[in-house]
Write a structure and sequence with these properties.
Elements (H helix, E strand, L loop, with lengths): L1 H15 L10 E14 L6 E15 L4 E18 L2 E11 L2 E8 L2 E21 L2 E6 L5 E3 L2 E13 L2 E13 L1 E3 L1 H7 L2 H10 L3 E11 L1 E2 L1
Antiparallel strand pairs: 1-2, 1-12, 1-13, 2-3, 3-4, 3-5, 4-6, 5-6, 6-7, 6-9, 8-11, 9-10, 10-12
């Protein structure tokens, strides 16, 4: 019986050793492209914004089952809303820096988690209705996006012949905006005030789906 258990354990360990597709010590670079389904917490009635996710990541295969990665991802985030016949889109775009541990729990299948600082590169409000459309920086309304946004990415990936299919959720930790309420009341319409008031304590929440390709360096 002990021999049977020993054989079973050896088989299990040998299987675990092959979970990662790349050898221990390998460094890979992975350009990736995909899309976001982005929204915000405390945004009652708001709809998601669909946007581009584009960038690349490096990964170092530290052990047979654990790799560490870091990258740069251009990420279109925000949300949309339709109030009183006016379509509004809040466009907050970031360059995100995902720093992840990738744990391979099955052949080429990884669970990933870590921390992600993001740097705001654009914050605009687009409003359209009645055949007209206008886009203005939110700062012009007294609503300034914070320069740095932190989130916790949690996700899954599957690798097939160096193609990597990745799905992750970025759970926001940082309130998105600083607001000058005097300026908001002076310049915004009532609908705009209501929109900002309901979102002032919002944090980013983003589902991100990408496909990438790994090159060994």
């Amino acid at each position: 019986m002990k021999k049977i258990f020993f054989i079973m354990a050896a088989v299990m360990l040998s299987t675990i050793a092959t979970f990662a597709q790349h050898a221990v010590g390998t460094l890979t670079v992975q350009p990736r492209i995909g899309f976001n389904i982005a929204s915000m917490t405390k945004s009652d009635g708001a709809d998601p914004r669909f946007g581009l996710a584009l960038g690349g990541e490096f990964e170092y295969q530290a052990t047979d089952i654990v790799g560490f990665s870091g990258g740069l991802i251009y990420s279109m985030q925000g949300c949309t809303d339709d109030e009183s016949g006016i379509d509004m889109t809040l466009k907050t775009d970031y360059i995100n820096v995902p720093l992840l541990a990738n744990v391979y729990i099955a052949k080429n299948f990884a669970v990933k988690f870590g921390i992600q600082p993001g740097f705001n590169v654009s914050s605009k409000m687009k409003a359209s209705g009645g055949g007209a459309s206008i886009e203005i920086d939110t700062e012009d309304f007294g609503v300034e996006a914070k320069t740095v946004d932190f989130s916790i990415p949690i996700g899954l990936s599957y690798e097939y012949k160096n193609f990597v299919f990745d799905a992750r959720y970025n759970f926001g930790l940082t309130k998105m905006y600083d607001v000058d309420w005097n300026k908001v009341h002076q310049l915004s319409t009532q609908s705009g005030e209501n929109f900002y008031a309901s979102n002032i304590k919002s944090k980013n929440c983003v589902f991100q789906f990408t496909i990438g390709y790994k090159f060994e360096l």
